[in-house]
């Protein structure tokens, strides 16, 4: 019985993992404001391998529409600049010594709508992931009942707990999506 309660806690932890992945993906989506997390997914060709931008430079936000990228190694400035240009974020860095200034252009209404669609895709992927966790949990419970480890009443009660955890997680995904959508559409 206590092992099954731990199983519910594990399911909730896995569902929260899906939500944290969603938040991380959404933080990379551009809004009208500058954010250091915007450049996190960028990989730089450095020292013969691909490295995250955060391992070769530091990113600051001196103004609401400007990012400042301080490259630590002078020889890496052009590689960092190329990585930012090639990142499909629509950014054009300007080099000033070892510092790259990246202006965040104003988003058009059409681009905002595209970003909202991308955010919806990320949210749907999180919902699917949460449903997979629910399915795994219910399969485990059904197997335990079949093996005689729990009664059908216990199965019903535990299944309700799994469904409640799933519903709470889906509501949280919807709230995160709604917040990001408002942020993207704000002019």
TrEMBL record:
Keyword Chaperone set for record: no
Record region (Disordered): 141-166
Subcellular location: Cytoplasm
Any single Pfam family the record assigns to this protein: RRF
Key words, A-Z: Cytoplasm, Protein biosynthesis
Molecular function via GO: ribosomal large subunit binding
Domain (Ribosome recycling factor) ranges: 22-185
Cross-referenced InterPro entries: Ribosome_recyc_fac (IPR002661), Ribosome_recyc_fac_dom (IPR023584), RRF_sf (IPR036191)
Gene3D superfamilies: 3.30.1360.40, Ribosome-recycling factor
The keyword Cytoplasm is annotated on this UniProt entry: yes
Biased composition regions of type Basic and acidic residues, renumbered to the chain: 141-157
One of the record's GO cellular component terms: cytosol
Biological process per Gene Ontology, one example term: cytoplasmic translational termination
Family named by the database record: Belongs to the RRF family.
Role played: Responsible for the release of ribosomes from messenger RNA at the termination of protein biosynthesis. May increase the efficiency of translation by recycling ribosomes from one round of translation to another.
UniProt-recorded name of the protein: Ribosome-recycling factor
Organism: Ancylobacter mangrovi
């Amino acid at each position: 019985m206590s092992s099954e309660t731990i199983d519910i806690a594990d399911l909730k932890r896995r569902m929260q993992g899906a939500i944290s992945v969603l938040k991380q993906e959404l933080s990379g989506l551009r809004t009208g404001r500058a954010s250091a997390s915007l450049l996190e997914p960028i990989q730089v060709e450095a020292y013969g391998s691909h490295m995250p931008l955060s391992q070769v430079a530091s990113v600051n936000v001196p103004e609401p529409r400007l990012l400042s990228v301080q490259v630590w190694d002078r020889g890496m400035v052009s590689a960092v600049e190329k990585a930012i240009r090639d990142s499909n974020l629509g950014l054009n860095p300007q080099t000033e010594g070892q510092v790259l200034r990246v202006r965040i252009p104003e988003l058009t209404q059409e681009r905002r709508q595209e970003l909202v669609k991308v955010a919806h895709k990320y949210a749907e992927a999180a919902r699917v992931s949460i449903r997979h966790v629910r399915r795994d949990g219910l399969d485990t419970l059904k197997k335990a009942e079949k093996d005689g480890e729990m009664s059908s009443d216990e199965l019903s009660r535990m299944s309700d707990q799994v469904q409640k955890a799933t519903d709470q997680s889906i509501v949280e995904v919807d709230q995160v999506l709604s917040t990001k959508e408002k942020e993207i559409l704000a002019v």
